Amino acid sequence: MSKPVRQRRPEDRPDEILDAALAEFTEAGFAGAKVEDIARRAGVSKGTIYLYFDTKEAMLKALVEQSAGRIAQGAAALIEAGAARDPVQTYRSVFRMVLTAMSDPDISAAPRLVLSEAARFPELARYYRERVIQIGIGALKRLLETGAQSGVFRKVDLVAAERVLAGPAVAHLMLSTVFALPGDPRPDPARLADQITDIVLYGLTPRTDRP
């Protein structure tokens, strides 16, 4: 008895196209990727691609929304829920979530691609800033302000503090992907996040008030 042919559901097609697009972007580069090659990877016609996505830029933007966009929204939600109750633990939870997510190659692929192509495609850079960076930075600003109002954090320059708090996530992405070398250690993301959080919150000098 022959096996039934697996039917592809139309609702799955956008995700299949995006998976193919990410593979093609990663292999050929964003500029070098061709829609017909993405269609071939996805097993659809070139015309089918355009039913869902007008351009390659639209595909990459959708990939950003699926990865870094969701991370930024998740971080903002955690901060909204926990900042007033416990700013320190909220930052720990947010940073652990972000670092763990960015350690997943499937999630970090689109942000890494945008970082590598941003100079050549400023529209993509602008989109990433609006849909990811500004959401994340805005949430961190609210966390800092809430912590300062409650006396948990001291008042600091917000622009500098935002970069200090967000910087380790960017550094982790770059060091674990773009600049990764064979044999580099692969630390546990949650443990690494906690260690970085301690350094960010308490600095490098001994403190008598450290919990």
TrEMBL record:
Keyword Ribosomal protein: no
Residue ranges occupied by any HTH tetR-type domain in the UniProt entry: 11-71
Pfam families associated with the record: TetR_C_7 (PF14246), TetR_N (PF00440)
Molecular function as annotated in GO: DNA-binding transcription factor activity; transcription cis-regulatory region binding
Residue ranges flagged as DNA-binding region: 34-53
Entry keywords, A to Z: DNA-binding, Transcription, Transcription regulation
InterPro entries: Homeodomain-like_sf, HTH-type_TetR-like_transc_reg, HTH_TetR, Tet_transcr_reg_TetR-rel_C_sf, TetR_C_Proteobacteria
Alphabetized PANTHER family for the sequence: HTH-TYPE TRANSCRIPTIONAL REGULATOR RUTR, HTH-TYPE TRANSCRIPTIONAL REGULATOR UIDR
Protein name as it appears in the record: TetR/AcrR family transcriptional regulator
Lineage, opening ranks: Bacteria, Pseudomonadati, Pseudomonadota, Alphaproteobacteria, Maricaulales
